[in-house]
Amino acid sequence: MKIRLGMIGGGQGAYIGAIHRMAAALDGLYELTAGAFSSDAEKSRATGQLLGLAPDRVYASYQELLAQEQQRPEAERVQVVAIVTPNHLHFEPARQALESGFHVILDKPMTFSLAEAKQLQQVAAGSGKKLCLTHTYSGYPMVKEARQLVAAGTFGPIRKVYVEYPQGWLSAFEEGGDNKQAAWRTDPARSGVAGAMGDIGTHAFNLLEYVTGLQVERLCADINVVVPGRRLDDDGAVLLKLSGGASGVLVATQVAAGEENNVRIRAYGERGGFDWQQADANTLLVRWPDRPAEIRRTGTGYVGSFAQHNARTPAGHPEGYLEAFANLYRNFALTLQAELAGQPAPPEALDYPSLEEGVRGMAFIENVIASGHSDQKWTDFAV
Amino acid sequence: MKIRLGMIGGGQGAYIGAIHRMAAALDGLYELTAGAFSSDAEKSRATGQLLGLAPDRVYASYQELLAQEQQRPEAERVQVVAIVTPNHLHFEPARQALESGFHVILDKPMTFSLAEAKQLQQVAAGSGKKLCLTHTYSGYPMVKEARQLVAAGTFGPIRKVYVEYPQGWLSAFEEGGDNKQAAWRTDPARSGVAGAMGDIGTHAFNLLEYVTGLQVERLCADINVVVPGRRLDDDGAVLLKLSGGASGVLVATQVAAGEENNVRIRAYGERGGFDWQQADANTLLVRWPDRPAEIRRTGTGYVGSFAQHNARTPAGHPEGYLEAFANLYRNFALTLQAELAGQPAPPEALDYPSLEEGVRGMAFIENVIASGHSDQKWTDFAV
Amino acid sequence: MKIRLGMIGGGQGAYIGAIHRMAAALDGLYELTAGAFSSDAEKSRATGQLLGLAPDRVYASYQELLAQEQQRPEAERVQVVAIVTPNHLHFEPARQALESGFHVILDKPMTFSLAEAKQLQQVAAGSGKKLCLTHTYSGYPMVKEARQLVAAGTFGPIRKVYVEYPQGWLSAFEEGGDNKQAAWRTDPARSGVAGAMGDIGTHAFNLLEYVTGLQVERLCADINVVVPGRRLDDDGAVLLKLSGGASGVLVATQVAAGEENNVRIRAYGERGGFDWQQADANTLLVRWPDRPAEIRRTGTGYVGSFAQHNARTPAGHPEGYLEAFANLYRNFALTLQAELAGQPAPPEALDYPSLEEGVRGMAFIENVIASGHSDQKWTDFAV
Amino acid sequence: MKIRLGMIGGGQGAYIGAIHRMAAALDGLYELTAGAFSSDAEKSRATGQLLGLAPDRVYASYQELLAQEQQRPEAERVQVVAIVTPNHLHFEPARQALESGFHVILDKPMTFSLAEAKQLQQVAAGSGKKLCLTHTYSGYPMVKEARQLVAAGTFGPIRKVYVEYPQGWLSAFEEGGDNKQAAWRTDPARSGVAGAMGDIGTHAFNLLEYVTGLQVERLCADINVVVPGRRLDDDGAVLLKLSGGASGVLVATQVAAGEENNVRIRAYGERGGFDWQQADANTLLVRWPDRPAEIRRTGTGYVGSFAQHNARTPAGHPEGYLEAFANLYRNFALTLQAELAGQPAPPEALDYPSLEEGVRGMAFIENVIASGHSDQKWTDFAV
Q: Which molecular function term from Gene Ontology is one that the record holds (chains A, B, C, D) (predicted)?
């Protein structure tokens, strides 16, 4: 049985809503059943129609969606709510959805502020419901392969990490025109205290902690507003001190003119290291001090259980961003199905970003911006 | 409204059936409504259940599917039948589906023999129904970009083409064990007169004719059975003479140990050339005699209308094999929807492989195998 | 003591003469002592002056160089003559040099015709002098690594080989202007029976036989003159049957607009294969059927003795075309020095192309052109 | 006439001395005439013999070399002295060479301390002699192309720069064994206040200032000793504030296990950016916000005058590390020859690193180490 999915946000023209819908659809595990696609009732209705939803499952507001779906018979009502609104509209829908008995899939960053994130964590704990936070890049098979290799001690303890997320799309003052994505992402009222650091810095941060299993303990940030007139940071670089004595560098920028979205992570222990980048997402380059580097590839027989579990096609048939995104949806579905079946989910299915990652992501945003304003070199990573 | 899809073949464990289902699901344009997933009725039933189909839409044979669906009210019955069986089971289901009033999506190569292909072409012409043949690689945005650049005369007339499809998965005698894919693909009774040339050579051939807009007129083939005991070719190389005076080389092998599926095409005119390969599918490398080579990328604003139409995510978020496959499904759906709406479909939607490509693909198989057996240098490409 | 080198050809403006001089200089093993740089005495003199040669060691003709140097005391006269003239001026200088008691370094292809090549082989055998033929690409460390891996049986017997040499510099009718390189290379009176096949096809052929240790036994060629007005082939593709039952494809073209000089070879046995290309010359990609591909690199500690011997810098500091060329000069020098010292040269030093390779290269040219003119599919490789 | 070169340091087994000799030899502009190759007189003599030097031009100490060569007739004595000793032995030989009337080629970093560097700058100014500092990476044609594009305003003012130099060769405690390179480079008495930052950080720093034309004004460094027992830094990351309001990140590490020497620089202005790395040294990737990225290549006709001037082979024949190194030697020679001829040298020849770069490099070392020890976020770049 497919899991019934309701969506909050994602009206026509929204970027991330369409991505979520494709990710949910790919593996046939979800059925988009209901939606409050816009705070504009007419727009919500039109989107619902376009998507082929039954008219009575298309709502004018998320409150209405939650209230009405709760009334429906259990076998009919949505089981999971996906929230794909801008950052300032994450907390309330998520909180209410959890308290109304729905599982939640939430776009990142988790909330508008760290305080909200911690509150949401408590709400979730009390609700008995689960939350999946869509840190897409952790869904790539070769990212999971890297994590599994690190966790197995393949490289020895990680000593150095470099993570970067260079974009170029905000090289000019895009928010001055009619670019809606640029408008809300550079608006403190909708994005929060951070621009680039919230939008893509959090992805880099999550990737680092996810793959290495280490935690940021202190940081030192250079946060910049490069484009004149911009109200939030569009560029930053951060020195990191990590648990276990490692150090790292995190770079995120939206003014690297001509760059697309080549998020990349490299890490090194005494016995070797690895290199992964989205531009060549199905390759994990593994380097050794004294023998040839290896090219590990999605879809092969020799990769670990996590990479195997998160791939769909034979080696050499590239899996991309939507497949990585779909892996989050798929693992969340498998976890919920296991719960419904009263069976334990395998570790590969349980491997999706959740509340802890969300809280730490929001802590990153607040700490990194604080460090950017500070004259002190090192800022403790406070959660 | 979603298009109602029935599937013939694709029971649990089948490779290509699962691919078709994901491709159909990705864009939310189809609803898998019915299926005859196996000639084993129980297996068909089990697959249908797993996929969440209504039990009365799961059939024990394709004949039953066609007959029963035809009986259903128009608003309910499947509109398109996807046929994902081995080659020897393409023609009959496809013929009957067309004659029963269903559109058809058919896995490649189109049929078991050229004679069947030509017959199917006639049947289709008489039926008024449409057929989409899933030559996946023609669905990649950057392949379409190459085609559009060539068609616009960007490089001048194409003079030289290299196309290759190296695989390594049949380097050993896999059909000796329990590898089902290897078993049927190396079996003349199920695969046809060709092994590698039918399985992947046809993809290379289609890619060549699709991108360059040229036709093979003569060929000279070296066809080999490399692995002892194998009953069909597992390797071949073909010299080509193309319309307009161009020449080319086509290589397809399944014994290139360690190779995955890096199908690649390069072509050159007097004013420039291009290079595309599946391993870096979102890049089209364009070379010029007297200025820097260009890296054209999926999802950017500067690519042509066909590449734009066939992409879903912003540049740098890789689209892969499933997205390319889904483009075939999507364009076919858009074409059918336009027809239903009584409107002309845009050229970008009409751009999917169909009967003509299928007939030429089968002609390639028969001509190339004939040339392989011939002592004569050049064999005319007979259709 | 440095080896005293005389040069025939290579006047100012000549391409390959300057390359030879840099290759000879790099390792400090040769001293350019004498030269007949041009058949134009004044030009020869001017070149000699520019190069800082003593005026009495600069000659107006190669005959004069050979005659006069022979007169000089043994401790003073040149020991090796490098011949860097166009193809039609290879045989006579080389023959006379050998007969006059000089070792010879000769640019490829060895001669103007196969008959000349075989004659030169006899002359050399009678002279007791050695000859080094500058098939540059065999000098790359990672090419030698590939050869050593193949020879050790790492991949099992080689079953399939692809070699290609795509260039674009003759995409237009360059010989119509003042491009001297284009002029002689497309002129049957100076280049011989072949254009592209002689200029770069021979390199590809040599690379194939050198790396795989196999010999071409039969071939089937498609030889083309693509650019109107051109007098020799500028494009070709060749199907190959190799010793031991392997097959191959050789491609060489000078009309691949925008291509530089990315000569590439791939070969596969049952247990694995390799991939080398000049554009990434310090990498040898080694593929396995069941484990990650390996990236072998120049200058590392894990490569074999031949790759070690032919490298100068630590890994990651790229060695290029001149270093590969210099390896030929260096190995020839080490061989001559060992001979002078009455000691056996190590196999790594003895590893430079010589007469046998030269004769087979000329046979390739004549056979491939003959096959191009033939209606018969397979042409036996006659030497 | 070749320039007569004397060498200080570079005895058998020394790494960088051999590199200098090959760089000097490649273009035939220098003749290695004299040497004091070791402070061990016998070792110096043996090296000189191996190199074929006249015995009376091989000296037991650099003092002897300078004194004796000064006595020789002008037409005979060395004109340039190359100093290739460890850091602590740079200043005295360089000072005395300049004061004795010799031009100097000096390995980097310029001296042992900033104070020495500034003193050497004064000495040089007073001597009328020239100094070339071998920051190799600035010799690559595509690095020069990047610099010329930046200087022409192609990208607009540079706003963000990333430069990195990852190595892995000191991942373990190499200095505990008999690795001489590791021994002196990790020894404060021979290397100076910095390890990695002096050895490779200075290269990254020089590359950044050279290519962008910007100057570091403030920095914030995280400097680490990763390998237990090591006495100098083996890892560091530095946030940079640059002239003109730009910012940057500099990374240098010697504990990135498995990394070779892939120094890389990326920079971005509002209108575009570039990317260069040593692993693909003949490519300059140029990115634009709104059109395809470009691949600029060594040896092509479309590159600028600096790239043209610093290349030797046609496009596609890779030039490597030794060629880049040789470009420094070559440009220094052309500058000296122009001076001897009383003519102005072209700007392309004058383009080699010299005293100013040396002083700033030493200032970088001292400032970056100071910042590493500081609790203050930003350290002004003091010279």
A: nucleotide binding
C259: contact with A, CB 8 A cutoff: no
Residues of chain D with C-beta less than 8 angstroms from the C-beta of B297 = 292-293
* A290 vs C: CB within 8 A: yes
Domains of chain A: 3-133 (3.40.50.720), 140-312+359-372 (3.30.360.10)
**pLDDT confidence of residue A15:** 86
**Nearest chain C CA: its distance from B143 CA (Å):** 19
Instruction: Give ipTM to 2 decimals.
Output: 0.97
- CA distance linking residue C53 with residue C48, whole number of Å: 5
CA pair distance D198, D185, nearest whole angstrom: 9
Contact state of A249 with D249 under an 8 Å Cβ cutoff:
yes
Is residue A84 helix, strand or coil? coil
Per-residue pLDDT band for C14 (boundaries 50, 70, 90) equals confident
Give residue-wise pLDDT tens across range B117-170. 999 999 999 999 999 999 999 999 999 999 999 999 999 999 999 999 999 999
Whether residue B287 lies within 8 A of chain C, CB to CB, comes out as yes
Q: How confident is the model at residue A1 (pLDDT cuts 50, 70, 90)?
A: confident
B167 touches chain C (CB under 8 A): no
Mean pLDDT, chain C, rounded, equals 97
DSSP C118-132: HHHHHHHHHHT--EE
| Closest residue of chain D to B287, computed from CA coordinates | D295
Least confident segment among A11-15, A190-194, A274-278, D43-47: A11-15
Query: pLDDT at residue A12 above 90?
Result: no
pLDDT of residue B2: 93
Neighbouring C-alpha atoms within 13 Å toward the C-beta of A181: 12
Q: What distance in Å separates the CA atoms of residue C133 and residue C333, rounded to the nearest whole number? A: 13
β partners of residue B80 = B5, B103
**Distance separating alpha carbons of residues C45 and C50, to the nearest angstrom:** 9
Say what the alpha-carbon torsion angle C94, C100, C105, C106 is, to the nearest 10 degrees. 0
Q: Is B156 left (phi over 0), alpha (psi -120 to 50) or beta?
A: left
What is the b/e burial string over D46-72, where b = at least 16 CB atoms within 10 angstroms of the residue's CB?
Answer: bbbeebebeeebbbbbbeebbebbeee
Q: Do D312 and C322 touch (CB under 8 A)?
A: yes
In terms of DSSP H, where are the helices of chain B?
Answer: 15-26, 41-50, 62-71, 91-99, 114-127, 141-151, 180-185, 188-191, 196, 202-212, 305-309, 321-340, 355-373
CA of C378 vs chain A CAs: smallest distance (Å): 34
Taking CB atoms and an 8 Å limit, are D293 and B295 in contact across chains?
yes
Distance between CA A325 and CA A179 in Å, rounded?
24
Scan for tokens 């095409």, then name that residue. B265
Angle (CA) C47 C49 C51, round 5° = 70
> In the prediction, which pLDDT does D13 show?
78
The reply to whether A28 touches chain B by the CB within 8 Å rule is yes
Tokens of D237: 């990351």
Q: Does D1 touch chain C (CB under 8 A)?
A: yes
Instruction: Give the chains touching C; criterion: ≥3 Cβ pairs < 8 Å.
Output: A, B, D
Contact D257 A271 (CB under 8 A): yes
Residue type, B309: H
With a cut of 90, say whether residue A377 has pLDDT above it: yes
Asked whether the predicted pLDDT for residue D287 surpasses 90, the reply is: yes
Amino acid at the residue D104? V
Binned at pLDDT 50, 70 and 90, residue C121 comes out as: very high
What CA–CA distance (Å, rounded) separates C222 from C227? 15
Q: Which of A258, A286, A287 has its CB closest to that of D289?
A: A258
What is the least distance, in Å, from the CA of B162 to any CA of chain C? 9
Subunits adjacent to chain B (3 or more Cβ pairs under 8 Å)? A, C, D
Query: Which of B235, B255, B258 is facing C287, going by the closest CB pair?
Result: B258
Q: Which of D372, D238, A259 is nearest to B295 (CA)?
A: A259
